[in-house]
C-alpha cells in the first residue's frame, strides 16, 4: 500500500533553447550558432552560451532537430582499402579520423567511415550514400587529376571536402600538403649534401599527389643540372614490402643510388630492411629520407630524417572546412595548402663506398 503522506517529486523543468535565450539575453539565432561552435560567433559569446547550457543542464533533442531540418547530421569519410585484410590503424587512417572527430566535437554531426573495397567502382558506394540521403556531407581521400567522384559530387551539389587537389575546372573545397615542395626540398637537401643519384619511391602515378611529388623531384634535379634518370623514379604501392623490393632492385645497378626519398615511412622501413639484407647502414652506404605523417621514423634504427605532415592535423582541417561548407561559406575560401616540416635526424651526407661515381 502506498504511503499517502509520501511527497511526489517535482519534475525538473525541461531546458530548451528559449530557456538559454532568456538566461543569456541573446537572440535565438546567436544561441543556436554558439552551441554549434559556428565560427561567426565571437569566442567569448560561444563560451558564455555553452557555460550556461552546462549549468542549466541543456541537451539538444537531436531527433527533433533532424525532424525539423530534414538533415541526418551524419558525415562520411570514404577510405580506399588496397587490401581486404588492411588494418586502418596500421595505415595511418586512424590519425586522420581522430582529427575529424576532434573538429566535429561540439557540433551536432557524427562521423561514419565508408571503406571503398578493392575492385569496387569509386562511384558505386558514393551514389548509394548520396542518392539515399544517408549523409549530409563527405570527405574524400586519394584524389585524381580528373576525379570522377569530385565531378559527381559537384553535379549533385553535395557538400564535401577532399584531402588533396584535382585538375577539374570547377573549384571545390580541399586541404592538401604541398607534396611538390616536399619532394623538391627533400631532393635539393640531398643534392646539397653531395648526392647525384637520388631515387624517388613514389605512389601510383594516377594519384594527384604523386604527380606533384614527381614535379618537385624533377625541378630540384633540373636546377642542379642533374639529368633525370627514369629508372630512379619508381611508382608502386606504399607498403614496406614495396620499399624493400625496389631498394633491392636499385642496389643491383652498376651506378646505384646513394639516397632514397620514400613516399611514406612504410616504404622507408622497407628500404631499411633491404639495407640490413645488403649489409648497408643508413647514412653510410646510402641515405634514406621519409615523407610522411606518423613520425615513427624517430624509432627506426638508425632514426632517419623525415618531412612530417600530421594526419591528425589534416583531419581537423578537413572537418573544419566541411563544417564551414555546410554553413554556406564560399568554396573559394575553403582551399588550404600547407608545407611539411623537416625533422632532421641525420646529416645525410654523401659517402662513396662502392657506388660507381
Describe the protein:
The protein is α/β, with parallel strands linked by helices. 41% of the residues lie in helices and 15% in strands. It has 13 helices and twelve strands. It has helices spanning 17-24, 28-35, 43-56, 62-69, 88-91, 93-104, 122-131, 148-156, 179-192, 208-223, 240-251, 265-278, 311-326, and strands spanning 74-80, 110-116, 137-141, 160-163, 174-177, 198-202, 233-235, 259-262, 287-292, 306-308, 335-338, 341-343. The strands form two sheets. Strands 2-1-3-4-5-11 form a six-stranded parallel β-sheet, with helices on both faces. Strands 7-6-8-9-10-12 form a six-stranded mixed β-sheet, sandwiched between helices. Helix 12 links the parallel strand 8 and strand 9. The chain is elongated, with a radius of gyration of 26 Å.
Rg, nearest Å: 26 Å
Distance between the termini: 101 Å
User: How many individual β-strands?
Assistant: 12
- Given the structure, what is the number of helices? 13
How would you write the strand order of the largest sheet?
A: 2-1-3-4-5-11
Give the overall shape.
elongated
Seen as an oligomer or otherwise, the chain set is single chain
Helical coverage, percent range: 40-55%
Q: What structural class results from the helix and strand content?
A: alpha/beta
In this structure, how is the largest beta sheet organized?
A: 6 strands, parallel
Which runs of at least 5 residues are low in confidence (pLDDT < 50)?
none
Q: Sketch the topology as an H/E string, one letter per element.
A: HHHHEHHEHEHEEHEHEHEHEEHEE
The fraction of residues assigned to DSSP E strands is 15-25%
What's the overall average pLDDT, rounded?
87
Amino acid at each position: 500500500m502506498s504511503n499517502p503522506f509520501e511527497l511526489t517529486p517535482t519534475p525538473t523543468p525541461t531546458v530548451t533553447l528559449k530557456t538559454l535565450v532568456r538566461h543569456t539575453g541573446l537572440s535565438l539565432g546567436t544561441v543556436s550558432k554558439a552551441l554549434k561552435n559556428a565560427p561567426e560567433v565571437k569566442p567569448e559569446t560561444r563560451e558564455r552560451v555553452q557555460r550556461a547550457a552546462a549549468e542549466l543542464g541543456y541537451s539538444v533533442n537531436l531527433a527533433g532537430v533532424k525532424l525539423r531540418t530534414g538533415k541526418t547530421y551524419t558525415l562520411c569519410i570514404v577510405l580506399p582499402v588496397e587490401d581486404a585484410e588492411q588494418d586502418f590503424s596500421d595505415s595511418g587512417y586512424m590519425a586522420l579520423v581522430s582529427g575529424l572527430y576532434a573538429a566535429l566535437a561540439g557540433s551536432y554531426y557524427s562521423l561514419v567511415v565508408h571503406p571503398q573495397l578493392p575492385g569496387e567502382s569509386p562511384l558505386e558506394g558514393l551514389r548509394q550514400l548520396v542518392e539515399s540521403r544517408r549523409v549530409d556531407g563527405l570527405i574524400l581521400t586519394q584524389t585524381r587529376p580528373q576525379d570522377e567522384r569530385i565531378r559527381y559530387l559537384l553535379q549533385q551539389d553535395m557538400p564535401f571536402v577532399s584531402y588533396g587537389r584535382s585538375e577539374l575546372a570547377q573549384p571545390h573545397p580541399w586541404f592538401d600538403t604541398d607534396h611538390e615542395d616536399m619532394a623538391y626540398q627533400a631532393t635539393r637537401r640531398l643534392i646539397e649534401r653531395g648526392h647525384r643519384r637520388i631515387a624517388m619511391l613514389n605512389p601510383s602515378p594516377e594519384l594527384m599527389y604523386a604527380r606533384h611529388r614527381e614535379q618537385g623531384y624533377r625541378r630540384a634535379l633540373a636546377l642542379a643540372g642533374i639529368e633525370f634518370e627514369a629508372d630512379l623514379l619508381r611508382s608502386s604501392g606504399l607498403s614496406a614490402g614495396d620499399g624493400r623490393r625496389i631498394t633491392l632492385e636499385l642496389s643491383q645497378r652498376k651506378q646505384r643510388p646513394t639516397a632514397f626519398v620514400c613516399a611514406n615511412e612504410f616504404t622507408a622501413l622497407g628500404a631499411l630492411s633491404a639495407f640490413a639484407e645488403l649489409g648497408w647502414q643508413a647514412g653510410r652506404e646510402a641515405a634514406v629520407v621519409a615523407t610522411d605523417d606518423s613520425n615513427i621514423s624517430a624509432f627506426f634504427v638508425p632514426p632517419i630524417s623525415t618531412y612530417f605532415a600530421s594526419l591528425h592535423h589534416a583531419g581537423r582541417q578537413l572537418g573544419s572546412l566541411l563544417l564551414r561548407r555546410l554553413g554556406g561559406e564560399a568554396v573559394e575560401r575553403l582551399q588550404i595548402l600547407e608545407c611539411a616540416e623537416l625533422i632532421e635526424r641525420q646529416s645525410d651526407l654523401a659517402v662513396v663506398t662502392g657506388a660507381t661515381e
